[in-house]
Amino acid sequence: MVDCYAEDKIYQILCLGVKKQYYSLDSLAQKLGVSTRTVRNYIKQINKDLKGIAYFKNMRGKGFYLYIEDHAKFEERFKKISQQLYIMDTLQKRLAFIIQHLMTEDSNNTIDELAFKMNIGRTTLINDLKKAAAVLNPYQLKIIGKQNKGLYLSGEELNLRLFVIENIYDYLYSDYPLDKEIKEIVLQTSQSYAIESSSQEMILKFVTLMLDRLLTEHPLDHINEKYYKLLETKEFKIAKKMADLIEAELNIAIPVPEIIFITLPIVGRRTPANTKSMAEITITEEIKALMSFIIERLDSELNIKLNNQTLMKDIEYHLTFMINRLIFDIRLINPLLGDIKRKYPVAYKMAEVAGKVIEEKYDISVSEDELGYLALYFGVFIGENENREKYLRKVAVVCGTGRGTARIVVIQLQRVIGNHVSIDLFSDNEITKEILSDYDLVFSTVNIPFPLEQPLIQVSEIFDEAFVAKEVEKVALYKKYNLPRVKLKHSILSALMDEDRFFILDHNKDYWENICVIVDSLYEKGYVDVEFKKRLKEREEKGTTIFDSYIALPHTLNYATEEIILSLGVFGYPLKTVSGKEIKLIFLLGVPQHMKQDSSLLVKVYDEIIAIASDQKLINGLAMSKSYTEISRLLEHNVRGW
């Protein structure tokens, strides 16, 4: 294990040396806050590490001077050291030093002694210990201080190791002298079982930490009984093979708990990307049953039916490793989580629904990081469902400039709509209403002097491809579901609603009574079938459809029409439910049967409602609206549902 404190002092000495000055032993000791003997040891270490590159020499009557023999190599080494080492005034480095010190020291140190070793103030250390407590808490680890006895680290060895792996491994073990032969054992064994490179790196970390703790007499004596279930797995056999080879190489004995420890990164690895690795994995009946439960819950809660068999198989593979990680406390950090939540809100909502099923079946908590990775699969499902090219066969491009500029427009459009759509180019003086009537969509860089039946998208010669892609998606969706051309709007909710599906509700009535007001009106107007209210009641009894942000989304199948029926009810004063939640908006959805097989429009509806749920000002504005016109105006100006 690397001594963070010593590294910092060595780095400080090098920083002084590159100034090309002479330093007496006493002055160096004073600058570093250590004894002269310690300075001699540091200089001895530097001269050993930089042999053939640079060295300190003590010149009689002058002091120590840094002589550089190979400037290029010294610059490279110095740069590497400066990048790897943060000065001790960075919080994460101080926390790493504190944990390193407490996990390796046999004797306890007082706060004053530890502060002296770190060369920081007592108050700074006390504040750091408070922050360390928050970081350690999820791992059931504590730093405990007893008067006159000092500080010590309390907790299970396994939890300590998992904390190190997931938080400070690079600080403590980046330069650990692991034998080349051990690395080869780990990598070759992993490759023989088609384990991918990212997982190989993690296994190497576990092996390094295991050997360091075992060889420094900090063995894994006690682990929870649940980990012994791994003894019968294929992953344990892989770890056992590694352990046998390491035992022979180092002439040591590796106990079973230690082998279980290095099994964890194998059993909890990310889902492999290559086909060969996937072929080695068995999907159990338990995982297949879990997948079925998730499909049923997505259907009942969101009316979204997963019908892509290949994707479902991929999700089953993902669930296999995900469940292992959750059961055996292997945490994944998802650096994409924020982007996933922002860009794929419906996919993340689907992952939350799946997460609830997992929590119910296994009595384990599912982290947001894991939900984010699961959401990526649902994002693929949503993306494949859109298939906008299918509803666009021919498009026309009208330009008032030269052909070269017009071709630039066409090239950009091909990137947006693909090469399967036919694109015809026209100048503005050769178009007629009859000519353009033969196209599914018209793009134009100039004003068209006559009204068109076809959807028209105005573009400039160099346009925002992301914006145009959204507009094309909108047109394709309108064609797919035969939505009225006159309602081609920014907001899908606005496009799907009408004046007679807008309701001002009564906060003095309860939640179900207000829903009945909406449903009864819809039934009288022929929008929903006679059993709609009954199905809606059954759906509500299964679980609430009330969001945490003043929005309710009751929904069920509707057999009265092939179109999606969307209604909005608003409360000028919030409705308080028996559960204590407040409701300001009720979006009621009637979903046609065919949309269960193709949910692309439904996904757009959910997308927009989720966006509204994050905008408190818009929620309040909608709740206070007195007419559909006000609602439509607010949605058009505040929501981009496409």
From TrEMBL:
One of its GO terms (biological process) is phosphoenolpyruvate-dependent sugar phosphotransferase system. CDD domains: PTS_IIB_bgl_like. Keywords: Activator, Repeat, Transcription, Transcription regulation, Transferase. Residues 495-638 form the PTS EIIA type-2 domain. Residues 170-276, 282-388 form the PRD domain. Coiled coil: none annotated. SUPFAM superfamilies: Phoshotransferase/anion transport protein, PTS system IIB component-like, PTS-regulatory domain, PRD. Residues 393-483 form the PTS EIIB type-2 domain. GO terms for molecular function: protein-N(PI)-phosphohistidine-sugar phosphotransferase activity. This is Uncharacterized protein. It comes from Bacillus smithii 7_3_47FAA.
